[in-house]
Predict the 3D structure of the following.
Amino acid sequence: MGLRERKKQRMYESVSETAIRLFLERGFDAVSVAEVAAAAEISKPTLFRYFPAKEDLVLHRIADHEREAARVVEAAPDVPPLHALRRHFLERLAAGDPITGLNDHPQVVAFHSLVYGTPSLVARMYRHLERSEAALAEALGGDLESRLAAGQVVAAQRILAEENFRRVAAGEPVDAVRPDAVAAAERAFGLLEEGLRRFATA
């Protein structure tokens, strides 16, 4: 990554972190884009060059995950795609990756509460999921069956993560949730492999 790209990335991260801090303090709808720009010490037009929509200030944190499933499949060409995706999701659960919902760090819980508690953020998040689905479909082959499979995989991972977050946000210890989360993931991928045999065999 060149100097210009690194500088741009730092700008993304700095402005996003400033915005998220304000949103957590006062609520997403109570903070204007102009207030975020002022706090980040940039102009409003500059902010919109980096973040086309207010919601993107928050969802920038998950943007890097859009091609994650596709990258997993592409990195293991000799492994059945669903096996690679199952292994990756279980590894992320074991690591407590926030994207799996199995993380009780106060900042992570607050961030997820902000996203799931704000309708416009939920709606915008689905656009990210659509792009993730499209990337995975392309990695699987790009045909109709690949698109159907990608939709089911992305939906399964979303539902698993939401269930984990729901329990963690309700106060259950991560160590208590983890065995159920692993069992649910194994069950979900087992169902996917049973119904999507083309992507479960070498």
The chain has a mean pLDDT of 94. Residues 64-199 form a domain with the Tetracycline Repressor; domain 2 fold (CATH 1.10.357). The CA atoms of residues 63 and 128 lie 7 Å apart. The two ends are 35 Å apart (CA to CA).
